Amino acid sequence: MKPIYLTGFMGSGKTTVGSLLGEELDLPVIDTDHVIEETYGKRVAEIFAEDGEAVFRRYEAAILAELPTKNAVITTGGGLAVSADNRKFMLDHGFVIFLSCSLETIFERLKEDTSRPLFNQEKKKDMQKLYESRLPFYRDCHWVFETGECHPEEAAKRIAARLKRSELGYTGDKR
Ligand SMILES: Nc1ncnc2c1ncn2[C@@H]1O[C@H](COP(=O)(O)OP(=O)(O)OP(=O)(O)O)[C@@H](O)[C@H]1O
Ligand SMILES: O=C(O)C1=C[C@@H](O)[C@@H](O)[C@H](O)C1
Questions:
Q1: ipTM for this prediction
Q2: Neighbour-count burial for 83-101, b at 16+ CB within 10 Å, e otherwise
């Protein structure tokens, strides 16, 4: 069975919903940010600060190509889908689901969180620009899932239910 890739802006819930989706589908969950940190032995914020964003993007592309291409839920970093090559890889190898969420909701969710080097609560206009510039890349996917006010458990159940109804060609066959 092809992997399921979750994409979307920082704070859209990829990691949170992805881990619950893994439970729903009985599949392992792999987070690209986490694999990068393990592989390169540094936190994402350290890579940005010490090596720069371009190096981080190279790590992201390299890691994506190394990940399993079956039987997994893969939660991606918020900027991974910006690269046309990364998008093509995901579209060719799996089901790409964009977790769509309003920027207001994201500001609310990330109020207390300062772990994301590219997210800054104080720079609302810059965040708006970044968010809007990325929407076309996220929309280049198999399915847009509007998270709205949906609780993470509910979101995971709804995604799993649709996958199981085979509307996306998902079979659940673990070959
Ligand atoms: N559907 C939801 N409803 C309410 N809170 C949520 C929801 N999804 C995620 N959150 C909360 O929002 C915060 C960010 O979520 P999460 O880390 O899953 O986002 P992400 O898309 O993986 O972000 P990033 O791309 O930056 O890693 C967390 O505190 C999480 O608990
Ligand atoms: O949106 C982004 O560009 C990022 C999102 C995070 O998941 C991390 O991958 C990193 O902080 C960059």
A1: 0.95
A2: eeebbebbeebbbbbbbbb
